[in-house]
Amino acid sequence: MKQTEGGVTAAKGFSAAGVCASIKYKDRLDMALITSKAPCRAAGTFTQNVVKAAPVVWDQKIVERSSFVQAIVANAGIANACTGAQGMECCEWEAECAGELLGIPKEAVLVASTGVIGMQIPVEKITSGIKMLVQAQKDTLEAGWEAARAIMTTDTVPKQIAVETEIGGKKVTLGGICKGSGMIHPNMCTMLCFITTDANISKEMLQKAVSADVVDSFNMISVDGDTSTNDTLLVLANGLAGNPEITQEGRDYDAFCEALHFVTISLAKKMAGDGEGATALFEAKVVGAATKEDARKLAKSVICSSLTKAAVFGHDANWGRILCALGYSGAAFDPENVDLYLESRAGRLHIFGNGVACDYSEKEAANILSQPEVTALADMHMGGEEASAWGCDLSYDYVRINADYRS
Amino acid sequence: MKQTEGGVTAAKGFSAAGVCASIKYKDRLDMALITSKAPCRAAGTFTQNVVKAAPVVWDQKIVERSSFVQAIVANAGIANACTGAQGMECCEWEAECAGELLGIPKEAVLVASTGVIGMQIPVEKITSGIKMLVQAQKDTLEAGWEAARAIMTTDTVPKQIAVETEIGGKKVTLGGICKGSGMIHPNMCTMLCFITTDANISKEMLQKAVSADVVDSFNMISVDGDTSTNDTLLVLANGLAGNPEITQEGRDYDAFCEALHFVTISLAKKMAGDGEGATALFEAKVVGAATKEDARKLAKSVICSSLTKAAVFGHDANWGRILCALGYSGAAFDPENVDLYLESRAGRLHIFGNGVACDYSEKEAANILSQPEVTALADMHMGGEEASAWGCDLSYDYVRINADYRS
């Protein structure tokens, strides 16, 4: 398995485009299209928020019921959430319009939106956007990059990754794009993530792989603790790699899952590191936990702590906040037995052990914390389980961005 | 029942003091003492954080086992949390030292600390502080106010309240002081709250009243979602009002609970409104919920949402974030049936209903949101249960205060 160039157009048979449809933003790409020349098996995971955006409702139905999928239409600027019947009609129109132009049924078209909640998408703009997208689509790596740019909201950088692996003697490629960067606390973020692959894999095994994967990838990141109405992960597999179909667990399935996990973890970390106002990617790694579930709870509690995040922003080794966040995670442990470390490319420091602060240098700690990627490592000394979670620091810019997002 | 002057010295037989012991801060009051001239029944609720500060461990034992309590010694600046055996020894020393000077056993002395986690309290400073406190204590309202000032950390104002009621033909007084204002997400906040009363009530009924009360008072506020290691609520009842002892449920118990709830809700709202960096008290009120537990979850989810809080700071009626927070609260509901309103002393506005935005004036909404106390009201139309939760907006100053708290 090795990382390769590109994103959603890295795998065989996929095309993409990004255009400026002026849905809400002006003078930037705000609509994306991903298509496959062959029918795809589709899998997805979606927000667990009771309030689900219209595109989430549409996609859940398509992923569950359609025999194949061949396109994803996405827009940034307006989330099409809390938009009632009109919002649902808009989704259906998007699918119908794209389907007609692409020569596929509307049931083969997935839709996704991100942006302000509560506004209706202007139908004439999205219609002309879809026409532009269908004309503009290409199978080049650059076209995939434009799709990645077109789904950004407050993201500062586009996010894509691709990987190659070998399955059943054939080269299989997976590539993905995603956007963050606020309202990120995926329980299955306003995260949108689209992954394409040329792997030949049954729909059942594809969904199984995706559902298992998110537990330790997207569900382990948080920017602000707000689970969006629009969180959507879609994975399309068109089978063009020509590997024998993966229909059960085994070596081929494992290879697929490993490659999928590389893509999801890479994209999850990119989202966390580019959280609204973030100056650093902040990882909490828990080792020696009694159970896997405890390890996840502990790690996630630390990266969700506003106080810890503000301290990371201030490069202040306020480890008491980390220990405090472990303490309210819901997992049982003995504080006297916990070892806490801070680490980054600047080094590693033991800061807490035997129930009290270690004799560490505050200057060295501040240096470790001033790096772009910082890890808090907690060894619980209770067992063999571990987990990592990813978030970001809490900065003035988070407040600035969100105090007046709509204007 | 009516509000009256003062705080912890409002009830008969209580004295207090606040002194400058330079525990960590300089040139400000940082130690407080509350004493009763008669032995008190004591009740308390404490942090549910697995990591409990040494004073919490001490107080839990005293409240549970001691036949009476007669004093509370508190300090600000250092939390005495994550301080190991030395931290526990410090608590015992504080109790012993105060007990000796006051002529009561150490088992009648409760202790409380708030401030930085992980530092040891300097024993010589706390010892001289206790001596000063014992000499300075008075039964005046002013002395209670000084105690309220002495327990502040990042609080901008001291917080106290008192109320009079009649029980069994006698005037009964309850008064309290508290401090916030970060790491506030009480599950039973670094909240310290001390309430005194001259009511005559059995220990069992006092604890019952306190435990029932916090569910809808202190446990319904949040500043930043971080449950502290030091949260402590202590209630002392010395019986000097002379009412017939409350030993069971009934009219007297109800009158006591009503007065207690007035004190706790008043103090809880003061804490929420003075959250770190807060410019407004933000209340979420949920009505028409199916169950009381759902109503609490829904209300608390809204006041905990960073995005909603940032929008309140920006006076931006971004109601989509409110609906989103209701959606991930864990309570089931149909978004199509929810009515959302914004209200403050500037008026009341219907902003969401029938699944879509109402036709409201953004200018009017911004005016409502620019008041010092703002309420988001959600009618779920599912039943008759309601609950309120209190928090604050999320401002630049929250980040400033917490990026470098220790220096």
Key terms:
homodimer; 11 helices; 15 strands
Give a verbal description of the structure.
The structure is a homodimer of 407-residue chains. Chain A is of the alpha+beta class and 407 residues long. Chain A is built from 11 helices and 15 strands. The first copy, chain A, has helices spanning 54-65, 84-102, 123-136, 141-150, 203-214, 251-273, 292-304, 306-313, 319-327, 362-369, 396-403; strands at 2-4, 14-19, 31-46, 69-78, 109-116, 159-167, 170-179, 192-197, 232-237, 281-289, 339-344, 347-353, 356-357, 373-379, 385-392. In chain A, the strands form 2 sheets. In chain A, strands 1, 2, 3, 4, 5, 6, 7, 8 and 9 form a 9-stranded mixed sheet that branches. In chain A, strands 13-12-11-14-10-15 form a 6-stranded mixed sheet. In chain A, helix 1 (54-65) crosses helix 2, helix 2 packs parallel to helix 3 (123-136) and helix 7 packs across helix 9. Chain A is globular and about 70 Å long. The N and C termini of chain A lie far apart (45 Å). The model of chain A has no long low-confidence stretch (mean pLDDT 90). Chains A and B meet through helix 2, helix 8, helix 9, strand 13 and helix 11 of A and helix 2, helix 8, helix 9, strand 13 and helix 11 of B.
